[in-house]
C-alpha cells in the first residue's frame, strides 16, 4: 500500500492506494477516531453498488458499524439537483444525524454528488472518498464537490474535504475500457502541469499502463495524487495556483455541456489540453508543446480533435461562464513548457475561435 498525505491547515488526510484495501476499512476509520456509534451511509451508483457495495459494507458491518447503502442511476446526468434531493430524502428517512458520515463509493460523479450532499446535509457532515475509476484519483482528492446545472457544468458546489481517501485498485479490473482511457486524461494533466519527469515516465511506460499492469497503475495514481495534494496544500480554495488543475477544462467543460455529456469528462479535457497547447503556441506562452501534447494523449488513445454541430460562438459563450472567467472575460490555463503552466486572463475570442477551427477534424 502507498499512502500520500494532503497537508492542510485544519489537519489534512491520508490517501491510501493499493490492492485489497476494503478489508482494512474498519482500521482506517478507527484511525480517524470514529467509533462504531457513527452511522455510515455508503452512496454508490447503479453500476458500482452491485459490484462493490457488499465488499465495503460487510467488513464495516462485521466491525460493529451501523452501515447502510443507497444507490442512484449511473451517469453524469445524476450530478443534478433532483438526484441530490432524492439522496437527501434517503438520508433523512434513514435517520442519518449530524453524528453520521457518508462514504462515496464510485467514480467522480459519485464523489462530487455524495460529497456535495455531505457538504450540505445538516450544514455539513464528514465523508470518505472510495474512488473506483482511474479518473477519480483526481476527483476524490482536494475537496471540490458539486453538481451540474442545465446552463453549465459544476455550477453549484462547495469545498468540503474528505476525512480519508481509500483507492482499492482491484476495482479497476471491472472498469469499462472507455472509462480507463478517460481517466488517463487527468493522469496526463497532472504530469503536464507540474512534473515533466512524470510525463516522460508516462510516455515510456504507456504499454504497461494501458494494460493496467498493477504496479505501474498504482505508481501513476500515486504520482497523480501527489501533484494534486501538493497543489491543494498550497491553495486549497483556488485563490490562484489551484486553477492550474483546470488545465484543459475551459474548453473541456464547454464540450461536455454542449454535447449533453456525450463526451466523457476525460475525453473532453483531452481535447481541451490540445486546444490549450495550440493556444499557448499562438499566444507565445510556450513553444513546441502542441506536438508533444498530442503524442502523449494519443499514447493513451485519447481524442485530440472533435466534431459536432456546435458553432464556435456557442462554445465560447459557455467558456465565458467558466468559474475562472471574471467579468465574462475568457480565462485559460496555458502551457509554459512540459510540466509548467500559466494562468492567462483576457484571451481574445478570435484566437480561441481559430483554435476551435483547428481542433475540428484535427487540422495541424
Ligand atoms: N471534484 C473534482 O476535483 C473532480 C476532478 C475530476 C473530475 N471530476 C468529475 O468527475 C466526473 C467524472 O468522473 P468519472 O469519469 O469517474 O465518471 P463516473 O463516476 O460516471 O464513472 C464512469 C462510469 O464507470 C462506472 N464505474 C465506476 N467505477 C467502476 C468500476 N470499478 N467498475 C465498473 N464500472 C465502474 C460508473 O458507473 C460510470 O458508468 C465528472 O463529473 C467530473 O466533472 C471532479
Ligand atoms: O481540483 C481542481 O481544482 C480541479 O480543477 C480538478 C478538475 O479536474 C475537476 O474537473 C474539477 O471538478 C473542475 O472544477 P471546476 O471548479 O472547474 O468546476
Ligand atoms: Zn477534471
TrEMBL record:
EC code(s) of this entry: 4.2.3.4
Binding site for NAD(+): 108-112, 132-133, 144, 153, 171-174
Entry GO terms, CC: cytoplasm
Chief place of localization: cytoplasm
Pfam families according to UniProt: DHQ_synthase, DHQS_C
UniProt cross-references to SUPFAM superfamilies, sorted A to Z: Dehydroquinate synthase-like
Record key words, sorted: Amino-acid biosynthesis, Aromatic amino acid biosynthesis, Cobalt, Cytoplasm, Lyase, Metal-binding, NAD, Nucleotide-binding, Zinc
GO molecular function, one term: 3-dehydroquinate synthase activity
Pathway assigned to this chain's UniProt record: Metabolic intermediate biosynthesis; chorismate biosynthesis; chorismate from D-erythrose 4-phosphate and phosphoenolpyruvate: step 2/7
Residue ranges occupied by any 3-dehydroquinate synthase C-terminal domain in the UniProt entry: 183-325
Cofactor(s) of this protein: Zn(2+); Co(2+); NAD(+)
InterPro entries linked: Dehydroquinate_synthase, DHQ_synth_AroB, DHQ_synth_fam, DHQS/DOIS_N, DHQS_C
Catalysed reactions, semicolon-separated: 7-phospho-2-dehydro-3-deoxy-D-arabino-heptonate = 3-dehydroquinate + phosphate
GO biological process, one term: aromatic amino acid family biosynthetic process
Domain 3-dehydroquinate synthase N-terminal, residue spans: 70-181
Residues holding Zn(2+): 186, 249, 265
The record's free-text note on cofactor binding: Binds 1 divalent metal cation per subunit. Can use either Co(2+) or Zn(2+).
Annotated localization: Cytoplasm
Family, as annotated: Belongs to the sugar phosphate cyclases superfamily. Dehydroquinate synthase family.
NCBIfam families according to UniProt: aroB
Role description: Catalyzes the conversion of 3-deoxy-D-arabino-heptulosonate 7-phosphate (DAHP) to dehydroquinate (DHQ).
Protein name per its UniProtKB record: 3-dehydroquinate synthase
Organism: Marininema halotolerans
Phylogenetic classification of the source organism: Bacteria, Bacillati, Bacillota, Bacilli, Bacillales
